[in-house]
Model the fold of this input.
Amino acid sequence: MKLWGGRFSKATDGLVDDFHSSISFDQRLYRQDILGSIAHATMLGEQGIISEDDADRIVEGLKGILDDAEHGRITWHVDAEDIHMNVETLLTERIGDAGKRLHTGRSRNDQVALDMHMYARDACDETRTFLEELLRVLLDLAQTHLHTVMPGYTHLQKAQPVTLAHHLMAYVQMFLRDRRRFILAREEADVCPLGSGALAGTTYPLNRERVAELLGFKRITENSMDGVSDRDYLLDYLSAASLTMMHLSRFCEELILWSSHEFHFVEMDDAFSTGSSIMPQKKNPDVAELIRGKTGRVYGDLTALLTVMKGIPMAYNKDMQEDKEAFFDARDTLVKSLTVFTAMLRTVRFRTDAMRAGASGGFTNATDLADYLVKKNVPFRDAHRVVGELVAHCLTEGKALLDLSLEELQTFHPAFREDVYDAISLERCVDDRCLPGGPAPEAVEASIRHAREHLEET
Ligand code: ARG
Done:
C-alpha cells in the first residue's frame, strides 16, 4: 500500500504509477533528502516531539541508507513514487516503527523544496568552480598574447586592430559576470523551507532555525506558502546557466569561423576535432558546434520551467515536479559544456601570423589615418572624408594605405608628412588605444590583473 493509501479503496492504475512517479529522475536527490531527514529527525528529538531513542534510531538508519546509496546498493522502486517515500519506506523496513515517526511535522512539499534548495546550492558552487577554471585558462592565454595583433570586427567586417589578449579578455568579462550570477543564485538558494509543512506550517513546536543551522543554511523562509511553492531560485540558476551557455556559444561560433579555411586564425587540436565519413580531407570543429547547439537545449530548460510556473495557483501543485528534469538537464549540460570547452581551449593553436596578416588588410588603420589628420588640425569630418577617398583610391589600385607614397597622400590632403607611416602602423594603432578598457598591452594587462584580484577576493 502507498504511504498515503489510507483513504483509498483502489490501487493506483499502473499507467498513473508510471506517469507520475519521479523516482527515475529524483533519485539523484538521495543525498540531500537523507541529510535533510537526518537534520529533521535530530531536531524532532531535541524538541521532544519524538523520543531521543527514536531520533537516534532514525538517524542511524538513515546513515545506513546513505552509505548503501553511495555504494549503489539500493534499488529504488517506482511504486514508492519518489525519492522521499522510497527513503522513508526503506527506513521503516529497516528500523521498524520508529521510521514511521520521521515524517512528523513535515510534508513532502517542504521536503522536496528543501532537497532542491540544497541541490541548487551545490550546483551553484560546482558551476562556479568550472567557470573559474575556464577563467584561469583564459587569463593565462591573454597574458601570453598581449602583443598578438589581430583584426577586430564589427558587422563581421574588419574594423580596427586589437590584440588576441583584448579579444579573450572580452570573454573574461562575460564569464566574470556569469560567475557573479551564480554567486547571487546561491544566495537565493541558501534559505531553508523546512517547517513550511504542506503549505500552512505546522502545529508542532519545530525549531526551524536549528534545522537550518544543521544543514548550513543562512536563513529560513518567511512564508510557508511561498516556502513550498517558490521555484525562483531554480530559475535564477537556469537563467545564469542560459547566459553562460550563450557566452560559450558565441565563443564557439568564433572558433568555428576562425578554424575555417577562410580565416584560419586557429588550428583546433586533432583530439578535439572529428573527421568526415566521406570527405577524407575534413577536420570538423564538432565539439564547438555541439556546445553551440546545446545552448538551445539549456534555453529550453529555462523556458520549460518558466512556463510550468506561470499558471500555478498557490501553493504546491504537482506541475512543480517538472522542475527537476529541466534543472538537472541544464546543470549537466552546462557542466559538461564548460569542462569540454576548457579542455578544448587549452589545446587550440592560435595562428598569430595569420591574425597579423588579417589585421594588415581591410584598412583597419583607416580611423587612425583620419585621427592623424585631426592631430594636424584638420576637422574630423573633413579628415573622415579625405580618408574615405583614399580608401576608394586604394581599392581601385589594389593597395593598402601604408603602400601609398607621401606624394600620393598629399594629392588628397597637404597636411600629410613623413611621420604618417609610423602613426598608422599596426603597433601604433593598438598601443595608442591605451585608455582603461582599450586594447593597448598595458591597459589589457591592468584588466588581467583586476580579473585575477577579483577571482582571489570573492
Ligand atoms: N515528487 C514530488 C515533486 O517532485 C514530491 C512532492 C509531492 N507532493 C505532493 N503533494 N504530491 O514535486
